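JOB MANIFEST
job_type = single_chain_structure
chain_count = 1
residues = 206
[input]
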Amino acid sequence: MDVEQRLTDGLAQLGVPADENLIGALVRYLELIQQWNRAYNLTRITAMDDMALRHILDSVTAQPYLRGGAILDAGTGAGLPGIPLALLEPARRFTLVDSVGKKLRFLHQVVSDLGLANVSLVQARLEAYPAAGQFDTVVCRALASLADFIAACGRLAAPGGRLLAMKGRRPDDELSALPAPWRASAVDRVQVPGLDAERHIIVLER
């Protein structure tokens, strides 16, 4: 199956209507990852089909959990899940934060190449990022534990805002150790089309 068909079929299974422009932009993003990965070591997953599954479609599973207009992708790395979600949600504003300069250089190229007017890029350590209370949703698929996520990013969520943690297996030990006043309002298993692996999304709210 070619990558365009993989993305088209996968997005349809996730309930996302995909036109040629969206598919073309997602494929171009994967091509940029491949091109820059040789020098910048952005991902260990390098085959286009695997990236379509494990990067794009995996990222899209977070879309139904987004709330509000201001979204933060914390520790974005190669732009995941922020870039795919920004392509799907042009009316929302996405801020992608990472501390590694070379990843930000790559993302500046992506934003320029894809014409993403709804994406802002910030090089900062999350703990030092001075944007308290500015985001309706803070999403992350990279930080180690839920407690670490809350410690680094809880203050960045607006009143009534939420944190979204994208996980593999259900992290029961982490769920039992959430710091007050945070609680898990949802712990949902999600299915990435074509991927035989556990995925969970945890919604954390105060």
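[summary]
The CA atoms of residues 21 and 87 lie 10 Å apart.
Helices lie at 3-13, 20-40, 48-60, 82-88, 101-114, 146-153, 172-175.
exit_status = 0
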